[in-house]
Write a structure and sequence with these properties.
Layout: H1 6-19, H2 24-39, H3 44-54, H4 61-74, H5 77-89, H6 96-111, H7 114-131, H8 136-148, H9 157-166, H10 170-191, H11 197-209, H12 225-240, H13 242-251, H14 257-275, H15 281-314, H16 317-327, H17 332-347, H18 352-369, H19 374-388, H20 396-405, H21 409-415, H22 417-432, H23 435-444
Helix pairs in contact: 1-2, 2-15, 3-15, 4-7, 4-14, 4-15, 5-6, 5-12, 6-7, 6-8, 6-10, 7-8, 7-20, 8-20, 8-21, 9-18, 9-19, 10-19, 10-22, 10-23, 13-14, 15-18, 16-18, 17-18, 17-19, 18-19, 19-22
Length: 445
Amino acid sequence: MVELDPGTAMVVVFFLLLFLRVPVAFALGLSSLYAMWQMGFGLDLVGDLLASGIAKFSLLAIPFFILAGTLMGTVGIAERMIRFFRVLVGALPGGMGVVGTVVCLFWGAVSGSGPASVAAIGPLIIRGMEEDGYPKPFAAALVCTGAALSIVIPPSIGLVIYGVIAETSIAQLFIAAIIPGLVMGLLMVATLPFAGKARHAAMTTAAGTGGLAALAPPPYEGMGYLPRLGRSFLDAFWGLLTPVVILGGIYGGVFTPTEAAMVATVYALFVGLFIYRTLTFSTLYGALVEASASSAVVMLVVTFASLFGWVVTVDDLVGKYSGALLALSDNQWVILAVIMLVVLIAGMFMDAITIMFIALPIFMPVVHHLGWDPVWFGVALMVNLAIGLFTPPVGINLFVAANITRMSLEKIALGAVPFLITSLIGLAIIAAFPGLSHLLLGWMQ
């Protein structure tokens, strides 16, 4: 019988528990406790390790960004933003598909969370794309893909966690992710012609009736283009200002990324209470409950992942596995391809946060040994993890979209295949050209 060291046994137990459908957080915790027992450590250490793992100021950004995104969806910012972009770019080839892509990218700068973005903007975009003739599974897949980029487009919860684990500047990560995020958005637009015949039929019908119904939102019906654009811009102004406030404050040195999350929350409350006046006690309570539930899930994973990471460090799994990676080849591109493939496969079964806590302690020594820029690596990793959010069997965005559309996960996953192909092309481009991540960094420095 093969004897496994405690760290490797912990990894095996973790995947076994996942196979048995034990929730990720508890699978991390139970496998860690098993390894600690094997190594002879007392359970009296557990409380201190959990407390030290979660007591990090940077992690406060996670619940506050989730709350800010939830509030902004609740007070009507999402609906006004979609109306503005429908007027602005809805007449371009691709219609509501282009609108959906732009809104998803823009909402990424508001929410920072993929599943939260699907829930907030998904119903409106999917309905608009259906009116524009897109097949419903394709429309849902576009939302899943665009919302996945919420962990790439700053402010990103994923980049916050990466910055904490890799001890890399979160502000630099935010700046570096902007151009790669836009590249992924352009590739999404390039995917739109593959939507199917329904799209072309709808365009033909719309051309005969004087235009697409989705391009004439009821509040602006009967107006010319410029009056509609001006009116929709004024309605959406405070929502459009959100990323300017958040990112401008970070890059201008007014506040840190963690403080930006709190500013975003206060800003959402201000807009809902005094500008749009759509925030009532009941809607505020509902937003707090929803954000608390989402934050609890994420933070529970982070808490137990810190215990898992401690065992990885103590048992020197980092040295063993990072050494094995470096021994694979003398070619850096081969090692990078292996790392990206491992993350891509892991993303099919686990959420991004779990993958980062398990894999980064192993990958970062390799990154430093090979002299790679940790900021570029973090952005490339985040794009890879974003793909996992809409890749079955555990692509969480697919589950959220299936819930809001009442369609089967299989149909939406099939609709996501074109986006999966173009996203893999985007990942290859971003991994192969580190300069994309440095364009804005170099300009701002």
